[in-house]
């Protein structure tokens, strides 16, 4: 009985194979490359960023480009549109204006911008607002807080986005061409590594020790770019209030660091920080008239 069953099974498969061989195989592959539909934001990025500066923007969440150490969420389309336009207006064009061409940004600005909707929380209760990776990529977090109201709030934009953007760009620049060692020597014994958020809870405490912000006390590189990014995004009155909040001694230390930062940018990059700040401040003042959502 077992032998008959085996014979029947073999006959069945023989018939099946024979019938299959009579059918013609389709010449069309089942693997078809689908062309992704480009929307208005894609076209805007292509024209304003990729064509002129060779910069790509990832606004749709890409897992492999995201830090898997954090629980993150995607940026919304609206916030991505606003950030893309604001970044061009407040972060790209001011450098073009001061340097006289698009070459500086094209050569040194990172080639990939990655948008994340949520913040990236650290174990110490603080959160990451941006990261720069090897001069190639900048990731900006917390984009989903960007809306019609916050998009016109200069203090909000600087605190959560543009201070961060200039901070990370500053890292790329000093990693490309180093700043003088004399900068570190001004407060060399006062850097506190990862304890900065415990030691300096408020800005005035950090200012008293000669740091423009608590995070600046982490180490010299962070101190350098914090000094740079706060200076060019704050008005003269805001800057003076920040560095004076800790007293005359701390203010003198910060001003000594600023002199080195200002000289570095002038001599190494041919950028006058006061002119750059004036250009950024003028654009900040005109934000109520700036259209953040139209991509035409």
TrEMBL record:
Q: Which InterPro entries match?
A: LP_HExxH_w_TonB
Residues in the signal sequence: none
Q: Which NCBIfam families match?
A: LP_HExxH_w_tonB
Q: What is this protein called?
A: Zinc-binding metallopeptidase
From which organism does this entry originate?
Answer: Sphingobacterium ginsenosidimutans
């Amino acid at each position: 009985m077992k032998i008959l069953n085996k014979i029947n099974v073999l006959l069945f498969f023989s018939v099946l194979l024979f019938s299959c061989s009579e059918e013609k195989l389709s010449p069309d592959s089942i693997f078809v490359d689908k062309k992704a539909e480009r929307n208005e934001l894609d076209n805007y990025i292509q024209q304003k960023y990729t064509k002129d500066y060779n910069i790509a923007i990832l606004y749709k969440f890409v897992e492999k480009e995201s830090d898997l150490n954090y629980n993150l969420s995607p940026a919304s389309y609206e916030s991505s549109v606003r950030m893309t336009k604001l970044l061009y207006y407040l972060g790209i064009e001011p450098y073009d204006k001061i340097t006289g061409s698009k070459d500086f940004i094209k050569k040194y600005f990172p080639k990939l911008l990655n948008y994340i909707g949520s913040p990236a929380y650290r174990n110490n209760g603080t959160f990451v607002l941006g990261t720069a990776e090897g001069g190639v990529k900048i990731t900006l977090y917390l984009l989903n807080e960007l809306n019609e109201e916050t998009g016109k709030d200069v203090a909000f934009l600087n605190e959560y986005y543009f201070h961060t953007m200039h901070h990370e760009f500053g890292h790329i620049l000093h990693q490309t061409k180093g700043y003088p060692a004399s900068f570190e020597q001004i407060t060399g014994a006062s850097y506190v590594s990862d304890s900065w958020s415990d030691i300096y809870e408020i800005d005035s405490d950090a200012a008293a020790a000669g740091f423009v912000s608590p995070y600046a006390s982490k180490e010299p590189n962070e101190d350098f770019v914090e000094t740079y990014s706060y200076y060019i995004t704050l008005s003269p009155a805001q800057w003076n209030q920040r560095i004076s909040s800790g007293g005359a001694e701390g203010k003198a230390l910060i001003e000594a660091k600023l002199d080195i930062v200002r000289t570095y940018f002038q001599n190494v990059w041919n950028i006058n920080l006061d002119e750059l700040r004036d250009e950024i401040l003028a654009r900040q003042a005109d934000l109520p008239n700036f259209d953040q959502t139209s991509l035409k």
